[in-house]
């Protein structure tokens, strides 16, 4: 059984301010939780409706009923388990290889998908503006499908960071060099913009290398690509020479 205090704590973690106060977040689903258990994330407590996760010590695991899981789950259709993890300290940004920088990306699904893409393409670092959606938002954690454990995400003053970096900075714009005809390095920062407004004017002013994904449609009517979709295409091109 889950106590009222436990229910109150877990449900409060759907909000960023309470995740900060308690320095905890939660994950749902066997795959995501197992990925986190196999990483450096520290388990606080696991709630499950099944006799699973045999490697988790009894004092950190509670077998609960499905009705209790519904009370603490953020999903419309709860999975079979939910786990609380401690939020680790942010790691130092290492300026090497490719780095994805997100300028005010607000949609949890987009951020989660971008982390999965970075994991797939071997990009180990993502830098987010402070206005971007929180990495420990339950919807982000769910969308990463475990990739959150393998990609270092850091929140910074993006304008200040880009203005002092020694790496080449690339930005995605409608007007830019055709990415399929560009000579692309294996080191640099790739800036992806907000879902509705793209890259902000302040950040745009700092970007010298402008690239674009050309439209091939006959009517040329599509206004833009989803930011996660665009990230996948761009990373594929940057990594093409390594294949």
Key terms:
alpha/beta; six-stranded parallel sheet; 22% strand; 243 residues; 10 strands
Annotate the secondary structure layout.
Blueprint: H1 4-12, H2 16-22, E1 24-28, H3 30-37, E2 43-48, E3 61-63, H4 66-72, E4 81-86, E5 98-102, H5 108-121, E6 125-129, H6 138-144, E7 152-156, H7 158-164, E8 169-178, E9 188-192, H8 201-204, E10 209-212, H9 227-239
Helix pairs in contact: 5-6, 5-9
Q: How many separate helices? A: 9
Coarse structural class: alpha/beta
Helix fraction? 25-40%
> How widely separated are the two ends?
51 Å
Mean pLDDT: 94
Question: Which sequence of strands runs across the widest sheet?
Answer: 7-6-5-9-8-10
Poorly predicted regions are: none
Tell me the radius of gyration: 20 Å
Q: What is the strand content? A: 15-25%
How can the largest sheet be summarized? 6 strands, parallel
- Number-wise, the strands total 10
SSE string, helix = H, strand = E?
A: HHEHEEHEEHEHEHEEHEH
- The gross shape turns out to be elongated
Describe the structure.
The structure is a single chain. The protein is of the alpha/beta class. The protein has helices spanning 4-12, 16-22, 30-37, 66-72, 108-121, 138-144, 158-164, 201-204, 227-239; strands spanning 24-28, 43-48, 61-63, 81-86, 98-102, 125-129, 152-156, 169-178, 188-192, 209-212. It has nine helices and ten strands. The strands form two sheets. It has a six-stranded parallel sheet with strand order 7-6-5-9-8-10. Strands 1-4-2-3 form a four-stranded mixed sheet. Strand 5 (98-102), helix 5 and strand 6 (125-129) form a beta-alpha-beta unit. The longest helix is centred in the middle third of the chain and has 14 residues, at 108-121. It is elongated and about 60 Å long.
